[in-house]
Structures are given as C-alpha cells and as structure tokens.
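User: Predict the full complex structure for these chains.
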Amino acid sequence: MISRTIALAAAAGLLGTAAGAQDAYRIGLSGALTGPVAGSYAPAIEGLQLYINRLNDNGGINGHPVELIVLDDSGEPSRGATNSRRLLGQEDVVLMINASLSSTYAPMMADARRAGVPLLFASSACPAEVYPPAEPLLFCTTAFAARYDSQATLDFIEAQAGTDISLGLSAMAIPLSRGEIEAAEGLAAERGMRPQSPTIVPPPTADYTPFATTISQAGADWVYSWAPWVTEVRTFEALRRLGWEGDYIAWAHLEAEGELARLQDPKFYAIGANSLFAEDLPVHQEIRDAAEAAGATYAPDQMAEGWIAGLAIEAALQSAGWPADAEAVNAAMENLNVDTQGLRGGPIEWTAENHFRATQYYRVYRWNADEGDIDVVQDWAAYTVE
Amino acid sequence: MQLVANIIVLSAIYALISCGYVLIYRVSRVLNLAHGELMMVGAYLLLMTASFTSNPMVAIPVAAVLSLTMGALVYLLLMRRMTGESVLAAILTTIALGILLRGLIVIFFSAAHQYPAVPLGIHSSSVQVLPGARISSLSLILVVVTALVYASLFAFLRLSRWGLRMQAAGQNPLLAAQRGINLHAIYAMVWAISMFTGSVAGMLISLDAGLDQTLIMIGLKAFPAALVGGLDSLLGALIGSLIVAAAEVLLIQYVNPLLADVVPFLILIVMLVVRPWGLFGTREALDRV
Amino acid sequence: MSDLSPMRVVTALIAIAALIALPFLASGATLDIANQILLATIGAIALMLLTGFAGQISLGHAGLLAAGAFTAGILAQEIAAPFWIGIPAAALTGALLGVIFGLPSLRLRGIYLAVSTLALHFLVVYVGGEYETRRGFSTGILIDPPVVFGFEFWDPVAWYPVLLFVAVIVWLLARNLLRSRTGRAWAAIHDTEPVAAALGINVARTKLWAFVISSAITAMAGALFAYYRGFVSIEAFSLFVTIQYVAMIIIGGMGSLLGAVLGAAFVTVLPHAIEAASALLPSSGGLAGSIFAMNYAAFGLIMIAFLVFEPGGLVGILRRIGGKRGTR
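Assistant: Here is the predicted structure of the three-chain assembly.
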C-alpha cells in the first residue's frame, strides 16, 4: 500500500514537473536532513513537504501547483551557501526557506538580500532581524522567540511560586541558548528571584550528572532550561537521579509531546507556542492522515512547525497572485495574516515592521499522572511583540 | 562525595569506549576513527532487537552477539584489504566507513531521537552508592560492566592462548606469522572484541539517555583519553580515562562548565609535549608510521 | 615529467581550452562548483606538498583554513581592511601557525603527529568561536565582496578567472619548489630521516619549511574562501573539512600534484554527482529525508571503493590508461 502510494506520488511528481515547470510557483528549502542535528529539523521539513503535496493534490494555489525544491545542508554553513546559490542561480525560486542551524544563516541571508528574494525561517530559530524593526526580506514562523520566551516562563514561575525562590538555569554551549539564558538571569534578578549563574553544557556530553550536580548543590527550587531538547531533558533526568525534587520548566520543542508521556513527571513543565496533538483538533487529524498516507518517516506530532510554515507559504502565494516574482511574494508577506487553525494560540500577522508576529501566545503543559495524559497548566497567554 | 561518584561514572564511560581504540591499535596498528559509529550501530542493533522482544535478557545478548559478528565482518570484508596500505589510507578507510554507517542508520532508523529503554521496560532509578552520593542504576551497571570488561581483557591477553597470540601479533607481525599464527584470524577477533565493547558502551549509554547520531561525538570524546594513556596500553586507557574525567568533572564544578569541551585536548597537548608516547605507551610506537 | 609526447600536449591543450570556455557555457550554479574545485585545488596542493612530498601527516588543515578565513574576516570587520591586506595577512598568519603546527613534527611522527595537529585544530576553532561569541556574531561574520576599480567580485562568473589564475600560480610555484633543493630535501626526509641527516640535510629546518609553506598557502586559500563566500563562520571548518582534504590527496594519488587537482575535483563534485544521479532514480517522488541519507551513505561507499580497489588513486588510473596507449 505504502509503496503504491509512493509510486503514484512519484509519477504525479514527474508529470507535475514535466507539465508544470513553467506554470508552478517555485520555492526552495535548504535544511539539515542529515548530520547530527537532523532530528530537530527533518520532521518539520517532512511536514512542509506533506503540506505542499496535499496542496498540489487539491489543485495548487490560484490554479498553479507549488514546486518545493528541497536541498540538504547537514547543518553546515558551506553547504547552505552552495544551496542558496543553486536555489537562486539555477532554480530561480521566488521564496527560500531555511530549516537548519543558525550557522547557515549568514550565507543564506547575504544571498537573499542580494537577489531580493524573501527568506523564511521555519523550524530554525528566528534571527534578530525579523523582530521589529524588521529587515526587509527576512521572515520567521518558528515557535520559539528569544526574550519573549523567558519573559513568559518567568511570569509562569512567579504565578506558581512567587519570587522568593532560587532559580537554576541551564543552557547549551551554542550562542543562541547561552544568550537567552544569560538574559533570563538578568530578568529573574530584576523580579527579585535568586538566579544561579547559568550552567552551560557543551553539545556532545556523555554524562549530564556533573552539570546537574552544580545546579542541585546550589539549592535550586526551580530550574529553567532554554536549549535544544537533549540538553533540557537530560539535565532534568540527571537532576532527578541525584534525588533533586524541585520544579523544572523547559521549552517545548517538537519532541515535547512524546517526552512528557515518557517522563511522566508531574513537576516537569513544558512551555511552548504550539498546541499539542493530544488536543486532537481537526488540523491535527489532517496532519496525521497526511503522514499516514505518505508513509512518513517521522511522527506526526513532530511536524507542526512544517505545517505552520506551509500555511504561511500558502497564504503568501495566494495573496501574491499569479504570476508572482520574488518582489510580489515579498510584498505579500509584508502584509499577511496567517490563520494557524489552532496549531498556535492565534494568527501569525506580518507587517512591514514586524516579520515575526504581532502577538506571541504561550501555553504550559505537564503530565497528569492520575488521568494518564497531558494537562494544560496555563492556557494561552498573549504577549504583544513590539 | 557526589563528585567522586561523578568522576567514577564518567571515567567508566570513557574507559569502556577507549579500550576499543586501544585494542585495534595495539594489535594491528590501525587507528579506527569509525569507532564512534560502530558504537552507535551497536546501540541501534539493540533498538532493532528491542522491537522483536521486550525481554532485555534476550534483546541485549542478541544485540551483543550481532555486534561481535559485525565487528569481525568489518575486518574480513573491508579492513583486511587495507593491509599493506599506508597508515593514512587505512585511517581514511575507517572514516569513510563511518560516513557510510551514518547514512545507513538514518535510512533504516531515521534521525529522530529514540529510546530503546522504553520497549524493554527499563527504568533507570536513583541509587545511593556512597554517603551523600547518588547515581542512576544504569550508571552503576556501566561501572560494573567496565570493571568486568577490563578484568576479562587483562586475563584474556595475559593468560589465554589466543590472547598471547594477539600480543605477539601486535609486537611483531612478521615473526608471529612465521611462527604459524593466523594474522587474519587474530585481526578479525580484535575487531570483533573492539566493536563488542564499544557496542556495550553504546547500548548502556542509549538505555540511559536515548539514541541519536550525537552518540558518535561521545565516541570521539573518549579518544583523547586513550591517547593520554598511550594508544597501545590498556592500563593507559584506564588511567587516561580517569585523568580526563577527573579534570572534566572538577572544572565543571569549580571553574567553568564551558571548559569541559576543550579539557581533553588541553591535557592531550600537555601530554604530547611532555611524553608524546602517552603515559603507558611504548616509545617504539612513535616510529611506526 | 619533461617528456612532451603529442598525446600529452593534446590532452593539455584540450584541458586548457575547456577551462577557458567554461564560464561562457556553464550556468551560475555549475560555475559555483567549478570555483569550489579551484579553491579546493589550492588547499589540496598545499596539503599534498606537506603529506605527499615531505611525508608529514597533518590533521590540522581545516584549522589552518579557518585561521586564514578568520584573519581576513576579523581584519575586514575590525579595521575595514580591503582584500589586498586581508589575503597577505592571512598568508602571514598561516606561515606563523605553520611554525607552531610544525614544532611537534620535530619530535613526533605518524599518528602522534597527526593527533598533535588535530589538537591545534581544536585550539584555532576554539579561539575563532570565542571571537564570534564575544563580538556577537553568533551567525558568522559577513565580509563585503572585494571591489577592484569599482568592479565588485560577487558573481561566480567574476570569481572564476581570479581563482583559476591563483590556482595556476600555486601549481607552478609548487612545481618549481619541488624541483628545487627544498623539494629534493623533502623527498629525502620522506624516505628515511636518518639517511637524509647523513646526507647533510638539516632535517628540522626542512620539516619546518614544509609546514610553513604548506600552511601559508592553506591560510591564503581560507581567506579566498571567506571573500568568495562573503562570510566566515567557525562551523564551516569542522573536522569533516580536514577529512575531505585528506581524501582529496589520497583519492587523487599520493605524491603527485596532478593527483591533488584530480582529487580536489573528484571530492568536490562527488556529492553533487550523487545528488544528480539519485534525482534520476524513480524513487525521487518520496520524502527528502531518506534520499539525502542515501546520498550521504553513497559518498562513504564510493570513497571506500576507491581506497580498496584503486590504492594508486586517480593518477594511478590515468597512468594505466596512458600505459596501455604506450605514451609512458
């Protein structure tokens, strides 16, 4: 069954490119599909491919199919640079998408600016340039947001435990995570909390216990971690094995849903901007169906980021009309309202000044041991992005 | 006390991994830079057997036997053909093998983070080992396994007939071959043992922490430990692991966690300046190019 | 070397004609690959001099490329230095680092030398990473393209003649160097050091020279890379880059300058060739993840096949073909 679907899809794809090369919207993605960090990006890329395939099956946009060219950069900047030159120089795309490590941003951003082609960051961390005042051409749909995330997390901790707490902080030794956690240290101190100096873990680490020991021995009541999922969850597990019994809050990356069920710890909170599949909205069912029909490699509950990017791309191309060049797509993106269908707390709104979103929504989840499922501890809290 | 426990656990991890580098180098003078990948393959073998049976007493031994076989196959199908080629070509072959294995793993198992412990129903609990020191039960098992592996390796090399042949082959392959020792069988065996110990390390780490491609990097982090001790000495690998782990844990605790990443290499540079052949290595190893 | 058989002349003329015609025929993306080959050629010749001729194993190649790129990047960023300062400065940095990288070679050989250069690689990368983090360039340092008489070098078409010119110069330089006294001294220490010393060759100085020259060229290639790409980022100089360069000189054929060029071309083109080949396969309608994993695995497999079945490298194959035609 699966192989037949793939064969059909392949045939459709070949016909599609043969017939539609002239009258398709051409967009291109460079992302980490292999290499050590692929696990954080490949599911989202697959989600986006599924979305675009489904879109084409339903007749495309404005009567034209979307051709998504996917290139692998393994998370390496040199390959990202080669890919962006190929997408711009050979494939003539009207929109580029980055789904990779932040080290690939510099070459892709430089090429996008020069060619005047919009660049969308999807599932990769939003660069500073997309926040107001936004730089032209750069857009971002990714859930997590520097500063706002820590603000929302600290608000939640304060609501739960007040400010008379010792706060442990954990980050990974990559600039993004380090920067955010160091900022959180300052924000927590301003509120009157007692933040510890951040514990920064290098990426390949055999045993997290030595790092957890420093946090635990400093007497943390709460610990906040904003880092790739490995660091967040393994610091937590190491803390628990040391006998630490405090509360732990971490950013809900795409792995969060499966992991909350695996950990089953009532004091492990995940704060995030995406709704979890446990909620079973119609859009969640759509993603599950699409993943099943295509025999997808990754779990549907890890594909939300790709699907949201797909929604944004569809809205942008729709509003750009046909024929659409890069300039028209960029103009459309600068004035866009994307209905996230419940995958987020509200729509993604882009204006000329704000290429991130006008309002960012956060939810906090945790495992409910009595009922054996995931609880919403705090429903959507809105933060205006200025 | 917790610090002592942390140092012991971390050095056990490094020691269990680094003995694979040492065994192969000591016997066949090949530096196996695919050890991290082979270790990861071992862990994925466990993930595979765990999908057939939820009994860890079956899944783990089967995966271990499979990794033993695979190690021998790596030698017989690939590395055997590299005998007589330059050192650099042999190293590059192991690197190419590593690249191949990384790709194959993504094809068969995807790049997602997976937990072999879940289907096997293994839960790591917290154990009080010393007053004021707790470690996870899996870490405790890992320390015990490392001790067993090293004890049996020492016994095997010193006492058994095959072990002595292995020593002979390592010291003077030409003479050993003239004495009727089948070098290919020796080399195949050492690759098998090396992959076996690496795989056991990979399995235990992934039972505790889950499994994805980052396991390779952990494999590479154990490499400086082997070098500090001297690439051709098992005892050296053990002591080297202890030194690197102790420096790492103490720096994390008292100085700056960020240093943990560069420490092994700093120790290594100091070692290369003072005693280039490692703590317990033989000087003669330097001249073998 | 000096036999100018008609076969060789014809081959050389065809190669030169193809190199000149390329920018007029190829698309931007193809030319980008051609430029990458030229950059890799410069780096591979440098490593070939060190490893293939002087017999010194080094795993610090990516570190030296990084040092060159960062010298150019930091100078451009901090004092807005133009390329004609950046490139010589990079070469100078490379030469200095060459002395440091070379010092362990006076005591160490083989694997231990390889590892000490590897340790230095990590140090260079650590320093570069600290610079990036401290100065807040977490996504890499951007460098403006070089401007000569108002003409901006950004397009691959504009870069191609420049890189071709530099590569040819480096090749000629290497060839003459190998024919000089230094080159003969390298050959001597490559074979046996004690004999070389007995012949009156200053082994230590000869070794250091090899490191200095090789490192200076490598760092210059790193700076060119930075200007060509328009950015410098420490992640672009991972250990994998070193592996690629070692693969180039071995697959090309040890101890041959032509081997360095062929190896550079082969290793650079291989991933693109595999990608193009797998796009032709009927399974390309599937999801991208597994296709790219397949390409990755194929890269390893082809490298293994080469090492096992063609230990003489690409040059070995060429010689065999040449031998059959009786031109040797």
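DSSP finds twelve helices and 15 strands in chain A.
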